Amino acid sequence: SCYNLKVEQLLQDYITENLHEFRKEIQYEIKIITYDYQMEAIKQEFHRQNPSEYQVFMILFIE
């Protein structure tokens, strides 16, 4: 019936919209994790090169 088709369409629209929002949340979390990973890799490389006290101070000051 027409009523069932309307309800079905409303449900599909609702689900599609919420899946889109959920996908955006997941993509945001992936970006955060990727950023954290990259920052940690940079920090480890910086410390691996035995920076001077001045260099460490400058990095801390910039952050």
What does this protein look like?
The protein has 63 residues and is mainly alpha-helical. Helix content is 90%, strand content 0%. 0% of the residues are buried. The mean pLDDT is 91.
Key features of this structure:
mainly alpha; single chain
Short description:
The chain has 63 residues and is mainly alpha-helical. It contains 2 helices and no strands.
Rg calculated over all Cα atoms: 24 Å
State the distance separating the first and last CA atoms: 62 Å
What is the count of structural domains? 1
Helix proportion range: over 70%
Number of strands: 0
Q: Major sheet, described briefly?
A: none
Shape: rod-shaped
Number of helices: 2
Low-confidence stretches: none
What is this structure's SSE topology?
Blueprint: H1 2-48, H2 53-62
